[in-house]
């Protein structure tokens, strides 16, 4: 995902900052138009979006936000205070963040 963001940023920077002239700019713009209308690229973008959604939902589940409950539903908001109003320390350890990049 980071590579894709880098490539998109690089391409946009090149197009916006290119000193190759209008002809090269138009050539790049036409190539972009053809690429973004390509059904294979659309399918790849859809798969990437679905994977990103899955990673986000997984992360939400790990931290206890839940992805499917409605706001205000019973159990959707974790209780941070006991009946006396003092905070309770959690007995479960917090897992380290996932740094594998979703692979």
Question: What can you tell me about this protein's structure?
Answer:
Helix content is 54%, strand content 0%. The protein has 103 residues and is mainly α. The longest helix has 25 residues, at 39-63. The N and C termini lie close together (10 Å). Residues 72-77 have low confidence and may be disordered.
Number of strands: 0
Cα gyration radius (Å): 23 Å
Helix content: 40-55%
Q: Average pLDDT across residues?
A: 74
Q: Count of DSSP helices?
A: 3
Largest pleated sheet? none
From the spread of the alpha carbons, the general shape counts as elongated
The end-to-end span amounts to 10 Å
What keyword list fits this structure?
mainly alpha, 3 helices, elongated
What is the strand and helix layout of this fold?
Layout (H helix, E strand, L loop, with lengths): L1 H16 L4 H15 L2 H25 L40
Short description:
By secondary structure, the protein is mostly helical. 54% of the residues lie in helices and 0% in strands.
């Amino acid at each position: 995902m980071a590579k894709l963001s880098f490539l998109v940023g690089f391409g946009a920077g090149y197009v916006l900052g290119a000193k190759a002239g209008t002809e090269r700019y138009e050539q790049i713009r036409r190539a972009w138009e053809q690429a973004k209308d390509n059904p294979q690229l659309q399918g790849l973008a859809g798969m990437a979006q679905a994977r990103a959604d899955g990673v986000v939902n997984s992360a939400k589940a790990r931290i206890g936000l839940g992805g499917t409950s409605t706001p205000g539903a019973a159990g959707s908001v974790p209780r941070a205070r006991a009946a006396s109003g003092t905070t309770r320390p959690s007995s479960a350890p917090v897992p380290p963040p996932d740094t594998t990049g979703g692979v």
